[in-house]
Amino acid sequence: MKTLQVRMKMLISTLYLISGPVCCSDVFGYSGGSVIVLPDLRWDVNHTRYVCKMEQSGCVNFIKDQTKSKSVTSGRFKIYSNTEGNFTVLIRELSPQDSAVYRFGVGNESHKDVELTVQSGEMI
Fold it and tell me: Which residues lie closer than 8 Å to 41 by C-beta, 6 or more apart?
């Protein structure tokens, strides 16, 4: 019985920390949690895929990949193709400093800008 209680607490904690997948231009997350962003782009192994943070000086790359791989991880960021072949981004261990506009792109022409807001404190 005690094992079941521990597993339930772990499940609830995991669900608490994951904000869930979103497909929009504004994403909200909580400090310490994760977000999954579906930027409405098709995964294409024949073109460069990238994630960057928009700053005054331009697009600062976190991940830029030109391989044929189906997923690429760099630190707390992971880009991959989901089961429908869509470009998907996982950002883990969020902090308020992650709040910014991010650009998700495939090739030179197709990209989507998403504003991430990370709130400190607990989810309600």
Answer: 86, 87, 104, 105, 106, 110, 111, 112
Buried b or exposed e, range 55-93, using 16+ CB within 10 angstroms: eeeebeebbebeeeeeebeeeeebbbbeeeeebbbbbbe
pLDDT of the chain, 124 residues: tens digit per residue: 555 454 544 444 444 444 444 444 788 899 999 999 888 888 777 888 889 999 888 888 788 888 778 888 999 999 888 788 788 899 999 999 999 999 988 888 788 889 999 998 665 5
**Phi, psi of 76, rounded to the nearest 5 degrees:** -90, 0
Closest CA to 60 of 118, 29, 117, 102: 102
Q: What is the pTM of this model?
A: 0.73
Closest-CA residue to 115 (of 37, 19, 25): 25
Rounded-to-integer distance, Cα 103 and Cα 114, Å: 6
Token couple for 42? 């098709």
